[in-house]
Amino acid sequence: MIVQKFNENQLLIGCDDQELLQSMQARMDGKKVYRKNQIIIHKKASPKIFRFCKPEEVIWKDDTFNLVDSISREISERKKTIQNIKDEYGYGVQWDYECHGQYPPLEHQKIMFKIMINSNIGAMLADPGTCKTAAYLWAIDYRKSIGEIKRALVVTMPDLRKNVIDEMRIQVPHLKGIILKDKARCMKIINKDCMYMLVEIFADDYFDMIVLDEAHRIGNPSSRQTKRIVEKFEFCKYKYIVTGTLNSNNLMSFFMPYRFMGPDTVPYADYRMFRRAYMFPVDEAGYIWKPHPASIPEVSKMISNVAVHFKKEDCIDLPDLIFEKFYCNLEGEQESAYIGMAKYCLAEIEDVCNKCDRREGITGECNGQCDGTIMSKNVLANIIKLRQISCGFYKNTKIVVDENGKEKNESNTISFKENPKLDLLLSVIGNWTHSNKYRHSKRTNTGLCQPILQNSELVKMSSFLIIRFFSVIHIPMYRETSQLEGNIDRDKKIK
Question: In this structure, are residues 476 and 363 in contact, taking their beta carbons and an 8 Å threshold?
Answer without folding.
Answer: yes
